[in-house]
Design a protein that fits this description.
There is one protein chain. By secondary structure, this protein is of the alpha+beta class. It has a domain at 21-60. The chain has one helix and four strands. It has one helix spanning 49-60; strands at residues 9-11, 23-28, 31-36, 45-48. The chain has a four-stranded antiparallel sheet. The longest helix is centred in the C-terminal third of the chain and has 12 residues, at 49-60. The protein is flat, with a radius of gyration of 13 Å.
Length: 67
Amino acid sequence: MAAPSTHQWFKSSYSGGSGTECVECACTRDGALIRDSKDQSGPSLVVRREAWLAFNLALRDGKMLQL
């Protein structure tokens, strides 16, 4: 069993109420962590500060990638 996280995790205000498609994020000194809210003891994606800032600025400015 993994040790409890000491990070302050939060969900997006856009997360659905059903709990089926949520991710949680935690800010760190070096960037951010991202995890599946349904598997809190599972793996986390580590995102460096510069990439996290660029991602958030793109969201704010409506510059989403078209897949």
